[in-house]
Design brief:
By secondary structure, the protein is α/β, with parallel strands linked by helices. It has one domain (3-225): 3-Layer(aba) Sandwich (Rossmann fold), CATH 3.40.50.2020. It has helices spanning 12-22, 28-46, 62-75, 129-141, 158-164, 168-171, 199-202, 208-211, 217-225, and strands at residues 3-4, 56-61, 81-88, 91-93, 96-101, 104-109, 117-121, 124-125, 146-155, 174-182, 184-185, 191-192. Strands 1, 2, 3, 6, 7, 8, 9 and 10 form an 8-stranded mixed beta sheet that branches. Strands 4-5 form a two-stranded antiparallel ribbon. Helix 1 (12-22) runs antiparallel to helix 2 (28-46) and helix 2 crosses helix 3 (62-75). The chain is globular and about 45 Å long. The N and C termini lie far apart (51 Å). 38% of the residues are buried.
Length: 228
């Protein structure tokens, strides 16, 4: 059963776009646009919590970058933002649903050494393994004062599970912003209604092996804009 959070309860546009993600008949281009809209909506809730002067790192996975990540990036009123994009290979250990890993196989990381605010986004947080892996990597690189964990959809136990993965000195910095909480899992190990399956397949990026060869346009554009 889906429960909307306080951020989405009075926003029909958020609810409509969450429904588009959940609908397995939604075409890839409409699905992508819904993610972009939800990214912009998430950013609107982050804006009151940041200042114009703080240095920010926005982190996302490669499959989220061009839509969810870009929507957030374009809507944050602070423009002093550096980008970190990760390609993760998510897998179960011995087919155990409760034990999953998500090693980083590739990354694009701009200069983040002086960033004190970390925003990490994901289209859906279920087992939290991808977010956990990427968070641990970044926290080892920087010591952020504020950590925002944002997503359109969270599984009911994901927030608690993620908090337990870190020392309290770190987890107390976490601030979550998400629009829906789902509490059902299908026989295929997908959150219901979730985001309607695997995001990279819904976006037309292929299976997990093929999607890790995809270079987001956001990464290409920002890389090309860096002075030689």
């Amino acid at each position: 059963m889906r429960e909307y959070t306080i951020f989405a309860q009075q926003d029909e546009e958020i609810q409509a776009n969450l429904s588009l993600l959940a609908d397995k008949q939604t075409r890839a281009e409409i699905y992508a646009n819904a993610l972009s809209i939800l990214g912009r909506k998430l950013a609107l809730h982050i804006n009151p919590k940041i200042t114009s002067s703080e240095k920010i790192v926005l982190a996302c996975t490669s499959e989220d970058a061009d839509w969810l990540g870009k929507g957030i990036l374009q809507t944050l009123w602070n423009t002093n933002i550096n980008l970190a994009v990760f390609w993760n290979l998510r897998a179960k250990v011995d087919n155990d649903r409760e034990l999953t890993i998500a090693p980083i196989v590739k990354s694009y990381i701009e200069e983040i050494s002086n960033c004190k605010t970390l925003i990490i986004c994901k289209s859906i947080i279920y087992t939290s393994c991808v977010v956990r892996t990427n968070l641990m990597f970044l926290i080892n690189q920087i010591n952020p004062d504020k950590i925002f964990i944002v997503a359109p959809v969270m599984f009911k136990s994901a927030e608690n599970s993620l908090n337990k993965e870190f020392e309290s000195s770190i987890s107390k910095k976490f601030e979550y912003i998400y629009f829906a909480i789902d509490d059902e899992i299908s026989d295929e190990d997908e959150v219901i209604p979730g985001i309607g399956g695997n995001i990279y397949q819904r976006l037309g990026l292929g299976d997990i092996q093929i999607k890790n060869k995809y270079i987001p346009l956001l990464v290409k554009d920002r890389r090309n804009a860096i002075p030689v």
